[in-house]
Design a protein that fits this description.
This protein is of the alpha+beta class and 153 residues long. It is built from 1 helix and 8 strands.
């Protein structure tokens, strides 16, 4: 009698060791990608905060001139964040119903003319002048990257 061999295309399943090695490699790749993504998100938030503060400064300059009212920007900081308050004592124009505006920015600090300060008041006058002149520098408090911006006021 002849024996007939039947060939089947059944593949051998993965062993437990092969599955574990695959999961280990996927985990290492995911952690490297996750760290890079976290750092990129942090830098993006920091950049957006700087742009927002710059836009507040430009907003104050334009609104003071347009409404012929003095506008102040109060910057205060602790070790983790910057608090910004913008306001006026005038009842004119944009500030008719709004006296103050507040915002805060995490993981940032500032220096004015090279010195750290807890509070800084910048006054934008109705004739377009800025009473507090100097260099305002924003700094990353976590020091994840060496990047700061200086803004001449």
């Amino acid at each position: 009698m002849k024996t007939i061999k039947i060939r089947t295309n059944i593949k051998k399943p993965f062993t437990l060791l092969e599955i574990m090695v695959g999961m280990f490699l996927i985990g290492i790749i995911a952690s490297v990608v996750g760290l890079n993504l976290n750092e990129a998100l942090y830098k993006h938030r920091y950049e957006n905060n700087k742009k927002k503060i710059d836009s507040y400064i430009e907003f104050c300059k334009k609104m003071a001139f347009a409404n012929q009212a003095d506008i102040y920007m109060q910057l205060s900081q602790d070790e983790k964040k910057i608090e910004v308050e913008i306001g006026t004592s005038s009842d004119m124009g944009f500030f008719k119903n709004i006296k103050k505006m507040h915002d805060s920015f995490n993981n940032m600090s500032f220096e004015f003319n090279g010195a750290g300060q807890d509070n800084l008041e910048i006054i934008f006058t109705s004739n377009g002048d800025v009473l507090t002149k100097g260099e305002l520098k924003f700094i990353d408090t976590k020091k994840k990257f060496d990047y700061s911006i200086a803004k001449g006021i």
